[in-house]
């Protein structure tokens, strides 16, 4: 029951919620026919993309990401923005199915006519997250969403992938009892443009302030990713909606600074190139491993390497040569 | 005492009868994780702290009163309320004439959540699961001809507790009854609302203040009134086992005590007026033991606060038989279930009891079913001679062992909660809710495998279900009647007086005045329930719940026969292979119905079966649910309805889906939906209806079949 690319393209351009949602489904689909159609749609929508502010948000479970986005997104729609939220949900059970509950924590934003929230199951493939999310982000921009927020859980490798496709990467933290880095990988902090200590309310304000200083010190020891921007550490309360506007101002400040010196344009170009080489790598791997001769030879050679009949170098060499023959 | 001289002989004899199988194969592990042996002896009771005590004396294991039912039987207190105040009032009069002793009012969900009947969010809820009350005028009709100085009235109200309690007080004033003459109970147990039933309005902090304000007002003005009914009932109904029910209820109680002490009250001024409310299910001996254990634990917990009045550490409780244990299938069986549960409550020593009507899995009780329910208690009281002896099971080897086991297990959880900083903090952490949901998912899995037997559902099912009794329906005109009365009140009252009273209430909310006291002038001036709630909401905000959902518990409990669930898993995988994604389903709850056990269990189990399951926030309007279905691009929406809103909310959802292009999204419905409404729903476009007790693999199979027909053929 697939419609033509035309129908999807027009629908998305007109900001039709249903057609946007169905285009995302095509992008996320594992079927080659769907992927091909999705590619065509994304390609034709490309001229409409690029105008949005692209934000990545991550944080450990319990940092209050969804509640933060609820508060932040609601503020943005109040300022006249149209906000798309792409939430990547890792909660998949062994069966492959998953529970997608983000919207229960974004009650107001979920019913806001200027917001579009799409939770996506990660399906257990972290690499796949990036691919689908990037294209989904573009489609949302084409549908008129001028702020696109990508939410991931800060425990895997997916956030560095996300960081490489957004303009601004925000890491959400809470004041913890002693465990400063709370299992967050150092690599995640390295790509952060701003760290926000959430839940700075009630009797937690002081602890949040202490945590803020700790992170500031930690950041000083890291090399900033950009010469034009020093990452900041802020505090906020999503439930009291305090400090939320400062965060948006920081995003805008970052945008202005990087746009003026040309880094923003450069960053996006770099990201596009990175994206292309990522896809090339992925394609090459697929091409290699799907080659019938490789498929035939690989198990035997693995066996040989295991039993020390062949050296790993010789085996790899042999396999690669097949491609060049 | 040492081992019974003949115990080894008995073991020999028993193993011989078992043809060589070890005696241990007869051990049973209860859902609480308590190991139960086939035989208990005097030896089991050695060194047991809770054994050999006396009724009316600490630690009150054998009952809070010295004479218990030998002196006076428990109060038969049936919970009822529906449609308009007038209808409910007529029902109360009939019930009182037929032997009921106290009143217990059920309010509709709009009232619970602080909305007037004319509010657009609650169009589907008016008068459905209880009586609609918008102002003191409704309250006066509700108690018309019922002398409030003589009748003890229990009110199940937690969210809109200020306007409702104030309404009751003012209705009494206008009957000429003084505050100090009022007796009864208000549920006022907000903590458990965050855990299970979700009929809260404000965030926890101001809600706890409201409770302290009520305790404080009542301790000086209404000394005969129970200011809170600390309730485990809803936890059990949400799937908590008996240990969880006991532990969380006692922990809630401790939290309320701490809040009251913090507000400056003396323990003995309020603690004697704390009452409890337990749910009694089909685990017969377990729940008898639970009530005994709860009394022991409460006494132990309260001793820590050093009360001088013994009544401060005495647990008095109301009980209700389990609504969840009732089945839509072969529903007369419910009379027997309710009888068993009533006996369990009585042998456990309850102070008052509600017995459910057998038709409550299908609809609202009728005069007939309510009579049978009431007579269940009257027959136990008057015909069985059970009341003659106090705590007749005291000293039973088995029962005392169970009592002690529950005390130990529940105490561990209570300690765990204390470590988290008390129940309010524990609730914030999500721990109690997750435990209850896990317990619910496991129970569902046991039922679906036939390990927990439910006759008519997973054993001896009827080939043809036939309803041969009358079902009560709430006419749609109830909402119109309520709206008309609100209009009339608003046009005849002194608006300036209302505005001033509401402004004063707001000031009290901002500052430190007593909220119940401040609400009384507003009620007298005819401010509505919604207006009073709004005045406080303006200061406190409205609470938004965080929905968490567990995964894996359902399928991990499937040990016996996994064929049914393997079949579904294979098919969801096949669906993925052919469609490029898993079957995706939105489970939603529309209207003000906060019963989220079913919808959580379904979400969790379906994910375990290989579906991608989106959960909607609670309290959705049909248009909001439709938007979410479209955005998430689901194949199917499952609407859960337990509060009689299905006939308006579900067709509206289908309509809203059509409006935004989602007419191809399949809609299925589940919950308490009477069979005679099925055709109505099918005509409206619902593709499948799953009544109470439908095994998950069956509903998943049917849902999946609908998707396979549509997408794979």
TrEMBL record, chain A:
Give the SUPFAM superfamilies listed for this entry. Answer: P-loop containing nucleoside triphosphate hydrolases (SSF52540)
Q: Name one GO molecular function term.
A: GTP binding
Which InterPro entries is this protein grouped with?
GTPase_ArgK, P-loop_NTPase
Q: Which domain of life is it from?
A: Bacteria
Stored Gene3D superfamilies: 1.10.287.130, 1.20.5.170, P-loop containing nucleotide triphosphate hydrolases
Instruction: Write out the coiled-coil annotation as residue ranges.
Output: none
GO CC terms of this entry:
cytoplasm
The record ties this protein, via Pfam families, to: MeaB
Give the family, as the similarity comment puts it. Belongs to the SIMIBI class G3E GTPase family. ArgK/MeaB subfamily.
Q: What name appears for this protein in its UniProt entry?
A: Methylmalonyl-CoA mutase metallochaperone MeaB
What species is given as this protein's source?
Desulforhopalus singaporensis
UniProtKB/TrEMBL annotation, chain B:
Instruction: Provide GO CC annotations from the record.
Output: cytoplasm
Q: Does the keyword 4Fe-4S apply?
A: no
Q: Where is the signal peptide?
A: none
Q: Cross-referenced InterPro entries, in alphabetical order?
A: Acid_CoA_mut_C, Cbl-dep_enz_cat, Cobalamin-bd, Cobalamin-bd_sf, MeMalonylCoA_mutase_a/b_cat, MMCoA_mutase_a_cat
The source's domain of life comes to Bacteria
Q: Does the keyword Metal-binding apply?
A: yes
What molecular functions are annotated in GO for this chain? cobalamin binding; metal ion binding; methylmalonyl-CoA mutase activity
User: Entry's Pfam families?
Assistant: B12-binding, MM_CoA_mutase
Cofactor entry? adenosylcob(III)alamin
Which biological process annotations from GO are given for this protein? propionate metabolic process, methylmalonyl pathway
The B12-binding domain sits at 582-713
Q: What is its EC number?
A: 5.4.99.2
Q: What keywords tag this UniProt record? A: Cobalamin, Cobalt, Isomerase, Metal-binding
Q: Which family does it belong to?
A: Belongs to the methylmalonyl-CoA mutase family.
Write the protein's name.
Answer: methylmalonyl-CoA mutase
Could you tell me which species this protein originates from? Answer: Desulforhopalus singaporensis
